[in-house]
Every structure is written in structure tokens, then in C-alpha cells.
Design brief:
The protein is an alpha+beta fold and about 120 residues long. About 30% of the residues lie in helices and about 30% in strands. The chain has one domain.
Length: about 120
């Protein structure tokens, strides 16, 4: 009896066909963007920890406050599907960092095409 229960636990688990990657977007917002227009910067990471480490290192290198931490990003992505944090100078927003989980190589849909009736 015990062997039967153990064999049920050893069944292969179905994995999602896509792999999760993290899209980090730095978007310049606010009134300063009108003066110096810039395109958003988008970077992809395969590991959330490395994404957060890269963000915190870049913020520290450019003397911005450390508002981003792994726990906040993980919870935001897990609960809402994204994490967002605005950075400002004297009450004026300068840029926004957004982290979103994306599926790399998702399963292809059937596209609504029916089976060929002639080959039956």
C-alpha cells in the first residue's frame, strides 16, 4: 500500500512550456522629460535576484536613494504581476523603474483552425 502512495508522488509534473524572464523598464517621466526626451530603456533578466542587484548597483553608482529591494520587487511581481517605483527630485518625478514577469517562448495556441474533414 505504501509503495502505491509513493509511486503517485513520483509522477512527472507538467511544467509550463515557457520560461519566466523579468523585463526591467526605466521610463523617464514628469516635466523634465519634455526638456530632454528619452526613449524607455528595456533590459531582460533570467533571474530576479540579478535584476534587483543590477538596479540597486546602478542606483548607487548614480547617487539615487535605494528604494528598490528584493523583497518588495518579489512581492509586487507575485501579487500584482509587476513592481513599480518612482524616483523624484524636489517633488518632480524624474524616472520610473518597472519590473514585469514575462513568459519566454509561450505555448503556441491552436489559432482556432479546425481539423481537415477530408482526411477522416
Amino acid at each position: 500500500m505504501n509503495d502505491l502512495q509513493n509511486s503517485d508522488l513520483k509522477q512527472p509534473k507538467i511544467r509550463p512550456s515557457g520560461r519566466i524572464i523579468y523585463e526591467v523598464t526605466i521610463q523617464h517621466v514628469g516635466s523634465l522629460n519634455a526638456i530632454r526626451q528619452r526613449e524607455p530603456t528595456i533590459i531582460f533578466f533570467s533571474n530576479l535576484r540579478k535584476a534587483v542587484d543590477a538596479i540597486t548597483a546602478e542606483l548607487a553608482l548614480n547617487n539615487w536613494p535605494q528604494k528598490v529591494n528584493y523583497t518588495a520587487v518579489y512581492r509586487g511581481v507575485k501579487q500584482r504581476g509587476f513592481y513599480s517605483c518612482d524616483f523624484d527630485v524636489v517633488g518632480t518625478r524624474v524616472f520610473r523603474i518597472k519590473v514585469v514577469a514575462q513568459v519566454l517562448n509561450p505555448a503556441l495556441p491552436r489559432l482556432g483552425i479546425d481539423e481537415n474533414p477530408v482526411n477522416r
